């Protein structure tokens, strides 16, 4: 691939690792850090770029997002028709499956309670629970949600999934569309959010929807903080309808000091780490897709700007 130019920009300022990786995988291409006034490039590889980059880079053939979620990009004015391509798994789905299965099992097996007892030197048993009483509902049955649903089903939990369009996933009871959301929730006790953040999904974990869930369950948010109405989740936990939550993503990140989630005894927080972007897998995927685009082929992971994901 000679004479191609690729610009890289990440709000995480990790160009020292990405640019040499991209350059090594694209010998013959020129890979450079985007700065105001940078030369026009054929492709951009970005995470949370500034509007100025999109306004200046008027020669792009495609824009690659170094994450699965494109909500930050969708806030910007993108050149009409510019293909935006998200990471398509690239090693994320197995991480998400590990994280969610861990959180589901920790709640179902009451491992927090045992840990507490052990710390007190108390050797006592809790009555085993039935998996049938702990159906797990996954909001979003995309690349990550489907993998998570199948992983949870491996442990014999009943699994429900909710998506925008109808789906058939083996071992998963599939619901779709707004009209089936209440039925999906009523059939679930543990709720996992793996939706993209769009105007339709923002605030979906709210008082009304939480009230539809079977009581005594657990909320796992691994998508975006703005999916959850924080005050409603806290009220549902403090009121006893929801037993607790495992939260990896927040409206403001890092989670501000003093936020009620930090020290809540029924809430576990982690620092947006449930599925990390793996650099070498991601670079390999992006480079393969640049090659496909140069040959005029279609690539997976193309974002539909009208849908917002
Ligand atoms: P996908 O685009 O592959 O899947 C999204 C799913 O959500 C699809 O099943 C889609 O339905 C469904 N969906 C979207 N909008 C609606 C709606 N209005 N009503 C019902 N269902 C809807 O995304 P991924 O699985 O790859 O990723 C999901 C999200 O996970 C990302 O957008 C990102 O925010 C988050 N993420 C978090 C990470 C972390 O570390 N915490 C890491 C990576 C991603 P349909 O299938 O019908 O289109
Ligand atoms: C992503 C993320 O969307 O890291 O990829 O959250």
Span between termini: 29 Å
Number of DSSP helices?
10
Low-confidence parts, pLDDT < 50 over ≥5 residues?
Answer: none
Which class of secondary structure composition applies to the elements? alpha/beta
The strand order across the widest sheet is 8-7-6-9-10-11-12
Rounded to an integer, what's the Rg over CA atoms? 21 Å
- Write down the overall mean pLDDT: 97
| SSE order, one letter for each helix or strand | EHEEHEHEHHEHEEHEHEHEEH
Sheet with most strands: 7 strands, parallel
Helix content: 25-40%
**Which small-molecule species are bound to the chains here?**
NADPH dihydro-nicotinamide-adenine-dinucleotide phosphate, oxalic acid
Question: What does the overall shape look like?
Answer: elongated
Short description:
This protein has 309 residues and is α/β, with parallel strands linked by helices.
């Amino acid at each position: 691939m000679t004479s191609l130019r690729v610009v890289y920009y990440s709000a995480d300022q990790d160009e020292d690792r990405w640019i040499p990786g991209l350059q090594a995988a694209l010998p013959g291409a020129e890979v450079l850090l985007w700065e105001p006034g940078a030369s026009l490039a054929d492709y951009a590889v970005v995470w949370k770029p500034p509007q100025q980059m999109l306004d200046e880079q008027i020669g792009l053939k495609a824009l690659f997002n170094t994450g699965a979620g494109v909500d930050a990009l969708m806030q910007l004015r993108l050149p009409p028709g510019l293909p935006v391509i998200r990471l398509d798994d690239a090693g994320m789905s197995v991480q998400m499956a590990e994280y969610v299965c861990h959180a589901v099992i920790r709640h179902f097996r009451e491992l927090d309670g045992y840990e507490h007892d052990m710390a007190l030197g108390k050797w006592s048993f809790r009555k085993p629970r039935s998996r049938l009483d702990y159906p797990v509902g996954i909001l979003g049955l995309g690349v990550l949600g489907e993998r998570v649903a199948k992983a949870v089903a491996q442990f014999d939990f009943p699994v429900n999934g909710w998506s925008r369009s109808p789906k058939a996933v083996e071992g998963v009871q599939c619901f779709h569309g707004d009209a089936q959301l209440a039925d999906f929730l009523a059939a679930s006790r543990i709720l996992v959010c793996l939706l993209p953040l769009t105007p339709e999904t923002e605030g979906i974990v709210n008082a009304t929807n939480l009230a539809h869930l079977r009581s005594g369950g657990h909320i796992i948010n691994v998508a975006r903080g703005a999916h959850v109405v924080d005050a409603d989740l806290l009220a549902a936990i403090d009121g006893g309808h929801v037993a607790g939550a495992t939260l990896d993503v927040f409206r403001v990140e890092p989670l501000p000091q003093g936020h009620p989630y930090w020290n809540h005894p029924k809430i576990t927080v982690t620092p947006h780490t449930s599925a990390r972007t793996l650099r070498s897998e991601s670079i390999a995927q992006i480079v393969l897709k640049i090659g496909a685009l140069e040959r005029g082929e279609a690539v997976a992971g193309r974002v539909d700007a009208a849908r917002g994901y």
